[in-house]
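user: can you give me the structure for this one chain? tokens are fine.
assistant: on it. calling the predictor now.
[tool input]
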Amino acid sequence: MTKASISDTISDMEIKTAEFKKSIRGSDPIIYEPKRQVVFVGRSNVGKSSLMNCLLDRIDLVRSGKTPGKTQEINFFLVNNVFYFVDLPGYGFAKMSLERREQLAKMIQWFLLEDVYQRIVVLVLDMKVGPSEMDLEMLRILSESNNEVLVVLNKVDRLNQKERHEQIKKIVAKIPEGLEIILCSAKTREGREEILKRVVGAPVN
């Protein structure tokens, strides 16, 4: 299976198994395994961990801390024994020291620019807030990589239909053209199947 075919989708995707494998802070053999990586990235407090649990149909496999910025490692979760969900540290947490924020930013950028077997990056945004300058910088970094990118607008349940329409127009005007956008809610599970069909291709041989 080639990188080009990562966008192939399947219907009725079923998450049969999901388990935490390991946390890393630097280079590790797990990064280069011949398995697809579905990588989740976003600012602190956008509901990234909750979204991953929703997609995996688990309650708390991906720990969602009460304190933003809790995740400071790259966490790998093996799904269906075939591919990885990868949870990157949330960026932009103001109460973290400047030195630590810079260390995490460098780690995230290094990881996203590494050449791996297959990868699709899911940039999670709070739909009501929209993209910040840090999110736009993340999209710039991703444009320098060979990664496919999917923008997921989380917490859509907090907006009515009119507000959704207005926010989508504002967000589309800010982000680069051609990016695929999916609306979702980790709380109500809206958009779950659409995201799974997009990020999970046919099994890797």
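assistant: here you go. The longest helix spans residues 98-113. Helices lie at 48-56, 98-113, 133-143, 161-174, 192-199.
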